[in-house]
Amino acid sequence: MSSWDLCSEVLVPLADALEKFSASTPYADGQYTRSPDAIYGDLHYIYVSLRIEQARRLLEFSKSPEFATVFKKTAWRPLRRLKRWVDYCNRGAWKDAEKMHQAFLAVQDDAWRTEDYLRQLVWMIRPKAEPETQPAENGAIDANEVSRLLHLAGDGTGVHVLAVARDTAKSVEERLHKLIELDQRYDGFDSEKLADLLGVTGPAIRKTDFWRGRKDRREHL
Hints:
Helices cover about 70% and strands about 0% of the residues. By secondary structure, it is mainly alpha-helical. It folds into two domains: about 5-125; about 145-220. A hairpin with a 2-residue loop joins strand 1 and strand 2. The protein starts with a helix and ends with a helix.
């Protein structure tokens, strides 16, 4: 497994899965729409299908044993916490559904923090010679990139959207809110897709109030 394989085959898919899990809402009208075992089973399947142990060994070799230990502890933490939550559920330890749900939200928050760690790890270790390097901070793009981003921006208002997204006179926060004003569909973009559109990094998106508030917006839909 090369450094690029580690990023593309393990770290990014796991981060994507944790992002999806942390934004999921299997709770409505005071009860869960899926069983705790089913919720755990979905995430557990993703973990076992990815070569996380191989990733740990590569980090141990290329970085240090201590670095690999931190990776293993951090990467597996959301699944371990979810398993404890399921065990409590199956034992009937929660006195009411609301306390059960608050505990689940804490697991989701932990998954979000792990996702952020994994994406930062990708930026740290991925080969610098790869074409998908970090976008320029000034948002400059060439003609081919304009064509690709117009396709990403969508139909109809693509040129207007791209002008807003790459307006570096405004903060990332301001640009995100302006995009949603133009088209609510951008609220469904994942953080890396938004980062690509704005010409910034994924962590720059995820540290905004806009991103942190997205879970609240989805829960109130």
